[in-house]
UniProtKB/TrEMBL annotation:
Transmembrane regions: 20-42, 80-100, 112-132, 163-188, 209-232, 269-291
CDD domains: TM_PBP2
Membrane topology: Multi-pass membrane protein
Lineage: Bacteria, Bacillati, Bacillota, Bacilli, Bacillales
Signal sequence range: none
Similarity field: Belongs to the binding-protein-dependent transport system permease family.
Protein name (record): Sugar ABC transporter permease
Keyword field contains Transport: yes
Main location: membrane
The ABC transmembrane type-1 domain, residue ranges: 75-290
This protein's record includes keyword Methyltransferase: no
Alphabetical list of InterPro entries matching this protein: ABC_transporter_permease, MetI-like, MetI-like_sf
Record keywords, A-Z: Cell membrane, Membrane, Transmembrane, Transmembrane helix, Transport
Species annotation: Paenibacillus marchantiophytorum
Compartments it resides in: Cell membrane
Amino acid sequence: MHMAHQNQRRKRKHNGVAAIFLTPYFAFFIVFSIVPIFYGLYVSFHKWTLAGKEGFVGLDNYLYAIKDPDFWASLGHTGYFVLLSTPLLILVPFALSLILDAKLKGRTFLRTVYFMPNILSVSVISFVWIFILRSDGLLNTILRDIGILGQEQELFWLDEPRLAWISIVLITTWWTQGFNMIMFLTGLQDIPADQYEAATIDGANAWKRLFYITLPAMRDLVILITVLTVIASSKVFSQVFLVTHGGPANETRTMIQYIYETGFRSNELGLSTAMSFMFFVMLIVVSFLQFKFFNRKSDRGE
């Protein structure tokens, strides 16, 4: 009885210490996340400008967004970016993590080099790539020097829609792949080395070890990174806004940029908030469908 009483006291003490450390986090989470969400929902049902609330409009903001062709065009641009960027933001970091996991000299230096762009601000990244990609910039100069382009020929990387999308995807991949790379590298290092040793003794080459040991062991991590990458790519804004300004002719304007322009340029905060909630619900649905898809494949043993 005395031992049980001591265990209960120790458990209450540990719970009390945990509560002390968790309380500030939950306080900030409630004040800066939960409260703004419900306040934003309240705003979305009103005619609201930078000057303040002007009146209750019910579902009018949502109905207007549904009928707005620019809303759906921006959503389409966002989906297009997600489809282009997600495979690269999975494959490139995974390939780099395989290189870094190998027993190579200078691995620490390479990790620093590969991850370094991730710590730079979006304004710095955008400025550097604008210098590289403008018509008289570094990339076209290199392409002319090696003979791919003629001396008088130019590629307008930021002024032609197809090339602008390629540029944005490459910028984003170069800038953000470091985070996924570190996650993949952590997953690789958690795989027991004796599995690879046994497979090598049995005659398995590098490709067989990759497909029969590495990928199955990292399946859950790949699913998680894929879902997080889709969500992150769906929220693309800063690099597009700074590099192409949504142009040419709004061909690269994404959903977040359109929400921003609706709220702060058109002075329709209620409408932009309604669009935000619609987009939020869409992201939840897409994430749910991804998990359902991956779980169904898992149940089938694929």
